[in-house]
From TrEMBL:
This is Ring-hydroxylating oxygenase subunit alpha. Residues 27-133 form the Rieske domain. Pfam families: LigXa_C, Rieske. One of its GO terms (molecular function) is 2 iron, 2 sulfur cluster binding. Signal peptide: none annotated. It comes from the Bacteria. The keyword Iron applies. InterPro entries: Cholesterol_7-desaturase, LigXa_C, Rieske_2Fe-2S, Rieske_2Fe-2S_sf. CDD domains: RHO_alpha_C_DMO-like, Rieske_RO_Alpha_PhDO_like. Keywords: 2Fe-2S, Iron, Iron-sulfur, Metal-binding, Oxidoreductase. PROSITE patterns: RIESKE (PS51296).
Length: 437
């Protein structure tokens, strides 16, 4: 458990907050490219407690500017997308994608007042289905050469979902390898051939054992954590009765993302980005090694569980996450259906909007969570001291970072990392894009 003061420091994200200052030093997902695929590409974005508007101008370039018009505060999301910018419907002030006011049609002829008016704006770039924003001071850091950024657009599918809780508890479920044996337990195994696009439904490593069975049969993983240049590497070992060991390698990408295996074909790189202190989005990039991603199928699977335009899950606290006691007795551990996203969502939302960490009791399997909080505390201290090069991926060499290796494999010997690396090399070798690490 930690003090209330520490909990506030690690979780709060608005301007001037401790964790918010760290998150602002990294590119954050602001919207899906899909959201801009419409006749009038203008969408509201609430990010790190700030209300913004994202638009694509007539040149096809993106702008991310403050939502409240600098004149008298009207909502620019209703702006007229014209003359290569966004024009406020209230008095016609016109802003370009940098937020500069370029025209005030109601002010006296010859007025140059507009030159002094600039809406707050942030740099944005689009990569593999996600629009990324940099809301920090100075220059943004480079993107690492991770698989999700390096794979061609055909091999990456991006989606998002809204969770009604603080970003840190959302991220912490992703660095907790023990929960999969319980929260995501299926009391019966389905055919792994039906697993496309779903987590924990493939076979484990290079065996015929369904992941669901392996997780169920071996609920006490031995977990170790290593510091890396991008964050943390988590190794979860499940020692099997026949002497073999299931090795699962997952990663935390500082400060708010994880990279985990989904199936033998795909990994998931998932950001947990704050909308504000008490709401966040997950943004996932599903990256396929060999075949192009079936985006239509992946989208259809997920749109069945979410409503647009805010990507809020249809199962939520208001309908008890679809909880069914008969299902809980016979089919799943949670009684909340087969979609593991709903299980995670229940776990992190049911803690309360901001988990009260003064009341928790962390165990041995929480080592990833403990190590990550320590790293976040160190980063907060470094930002306060103005020593940004103490932060992961703010200190050179970021563009050379690859992978990160995330996989499930079965090992016979004791060198788990070598076994994982070997399995990964084989997978990467048959990849049509350059996935070398
Ligand atoms: S409030 Fe936007 S132009 Fe007046
Ligand atoms: Fe989970």
């Amino acid at each position: 458990m930690i003090s209330q003061e520490q909990n506030d420091s690690l979780t709060r994200v608005g301007p001037g907050s401790d964790a918010g200052a760290v998150l602002r030093l990294y590119w954050q997902p602001a919207a899906l490219s899909d959201e801009l695929m419409k006749a009038r590409p203008v969408v509201p974005v609430r990010l790190l407690g700030e209300d913004l508007v994202l638009f694509r101008d007539q040149e096809g370039k993106l702008g991310l500017i403050q939502r409240a018009c600098p004149h008298r505060g009207a909502d620019l999301c209703f702006g007229r997308l014209e003359d290569n910018g966004l024009r406020c419907p209230f008095h016609g002030w016109h802003f370009d994608r940098s937020g500069q006011c370029v025209e005030q049609p109601g002010e006296p002829e010859g007025s140059r007042m507009h030159e002094q008016i600039k809406a707050r704006s942030y740099p944005v770039v689009e990569k593999n289905g996600i629009v990324w924003a940099y809301m920090g001071p100075g220059d943004p850091p480079p993107f690492p050469n991770f698989d999700c950024f390096r794979a061609p657009d055909t091999h990456v599918f991006a989606f998002k979902g809204l969770w009604e809780c603080n970003w840190l508890q959302a991220m912490e479920v992703g660095i907790d390898p023990a929960h999969a044996s319980f929260l995501h337990r299926f009391l019966q195994d389905e055919d792994p051939k039906e697993s496309y696009g779903k987590q924990f439904r493939d076979t484990a490593g290079n065996t015929e054992i369904p992941m669901t069975k392996l997780l169920r049969d071996y609920p006490r993983p031995e977990i170790s954590v290593d510091d890396t240049d991008w964050g943390l590497r988590l190794t979860a070992l499940r020692h099997m009765e026949d002497g073999r060991t299931h090795v699962r390698i997952t990663n935390q990408i500082f400060p708010g993302a994880i990279c985990i295996p989904m199936s033998r074909e795909m990994t998931i790189t998932q950001w947990h980005v704050p909308v504000d202190d008490t709401t966040c989005y997950w943004y996932s990039m599903f990256t396929s090694f060999t075949k192009p991603v079936d985006k239509a199928l992946m989208r259809e699977q997920r749109l069945k569980e979410h409503r647009l335009p805010d990507y809020a899950p249809l199962k939520n606290a208001r309908n008890n996450y679809g909880y069914d006691e008969n299902e809980q007795a016979s089919t799943t551990y949670t009684g909340m259906g087969l979609d593991i996203n709903v299980h995670d969502q229940w776990a992190v939302e049911s803690m309360g909007r901001i988990q009260d960490r003064t009341e928790e009791h962390l165990g041995k399997t929480d080592v990833g969570i403990i190590r990550n909080r320590r790293r976040l505390r160190d980063a907060i201290a470094a930002v306060k001291a103005g020593e940004l090069d103490r932060l992961p991926m703010r200190n050179g060499g970021t563009e050379a970072l690859t992978g990160p290796v995330s996989n499930d494999t079965i090992a016979t010997g004791g060198n788990w990392h070598a076994a994982a690396a070997e399995a990964d090399v084989a997978r990467r070798a048959s990849c049509p894009w350059d996935a070398s690490v």
